[in-house]
Amino acid sequence: xxxxxxxxxxxxxxxxxxxxxxxxxxxxxxxKAWEVAQELASQRKLKHVLVxxxxxxxxxxxxxxxxxxxxxxxxxFITGLIHGRGGGYGxxxxxxxxxxxxxxxxFAGTDDHIDPSDARETFSVGMGNLFEDEDxxxxx
Amino acid sequence: xxxxxxxxxxxxxxPADANASDFQWELDPTIITWDGGNGTSSAWHLVxxxxxxxxxxxxxxxxxxxxxxxxxxxxxxxxMVYADVSTGRFxxxxxxxxxxxxxxxxxxxxxxxxxxxIHIFMLLCLLAALNAPENTPLTIxxxxxxxxxxxxxxxxxxxxKYGEAKDKTGTWTIQMSYDKKPRTFIxxxxxxxxxxxxxxxxxxxxxxxxxxxxxxxxxxxxLLTGQVHIHDAGHGTYDTYAVRNGKLDAESMAFATDRDAGxxxxxxxxxxxxxxxxxxxxxxxxxxxxxxxxxxxxxxxSIGKMKPNYSRxxxxxxxxxxxxxxxxVSARFARYIIEEKLERSFQQGADSILLAGGGWVxxxxxxxxxxxxxxxxxxxxxxxxxxxPLWELNAYGALPMSASNKKVNRxxxx
Lengths: 140, 414
Description:
- The complex is a heterodimer.
- Chain A is built from four helices and no strands.
- By secondary structure, chain A is mainly alpha-helical.
- Chain A has a domain at 23-90.
- Chain B is built from nine helices and 18 strands.
- Chain B is globular and about 70 Å long.
């Protein structure tokens, strides 16, 4: 019987439809990930979660035509999950086809800023003395 | 028997001068801040460093002794709160519209409501609920929409200080259903400021009037300097005006009040139209509804984090699932505010948008999603406002405003 020659694929890729994940349990982050993986596996959801995440990467790369910075992607993904929003520009996906009219306003404030304590004092002084004796013309 | 008691909470931030050897609270319990809005009416005061507050929906129904409509409700006399004042007996609180054969009174979205008998009635109920000091002059610090404040401030002051006998003593009596004898309150002084000023102060000062800075995310700037646009999304009106480096922009104040952009016009009326339409399509008679009733449904929904369980209501013997229409009107309200209000502010150069008012509760997630990189201030992002709801910012904020004003004027004159 011909012996099957095992050839290590380049860059850690797998040749068959399976992939062996090894968690380094001495690494705190990977140990926590292992715990979550165990929990999801017990509910038969680990594969769904991993496939879902990889599918999201695929979809975004396909739509944008760009290879994702995965670190940034994960941060935006988790932020969006918690806060219900993504990073970037208000949900607008900017591509080379985006028209300038579709961009959010470029104005980001003014450059005339005084000392913060002066602003607060100005605000309070501007109301006058609210607690001085009542003005006499109330019954006029 | 239901008995009103003030809600109590510790101040969100220990005052900056708490450890000073000559420390004292700037405000005593006789200073009451009051936001007598179209949707709800609430009042706050500081009692030995503890915040006491109470809120009531802006509605009452006349009830006369035992003439309450027990045919349509199982709620008995002991399970409702009513108040006796010189003009009669009125039930108050949510769902009172179900408890009387008489129609509920609200008197909203009118210039004449400020300083009116029902406006003052709501304040008296709140003073009783707060257990405010009796038989001693109280200072009432209140607000009115910026576009109206010039024309209604005098009426509010005069009518409160007239007193119920119109003898200019400022003396009012009220007996709650759970009280054995009437309470006597004396209105000694009335301060009226534009709505939004209290909200700005809530962000700018602590409860004893000390400055609180709000650094930008990069720590290089303060979010209340430069051009700050106050956006107060109230029940009856939506008010917008600018504060530039601490100075109120008089020009923007003149056109600040928009009666078409409050919760009433943008959410409550569309919900009422939808419900009427659905009953008509079902071949049934159109139910009688009041805006205050729909407002209560929406508040209940928001308290329940806008989950479907909290969108079910009973009306005309039917159970209605209003989740879809609530979500639709919220989404449309958000789009309207973005297009008609917030975009304009940013185009005018706003450094920060300061949010106040209950309307934001329904649309804040959409707004934050739309503007992830803009400075939008709301209590959840400011530690010293932790636990203060958006709809209470004007009422609560009038306390730090009053404390700061006392401090700064002592400094000026001292």
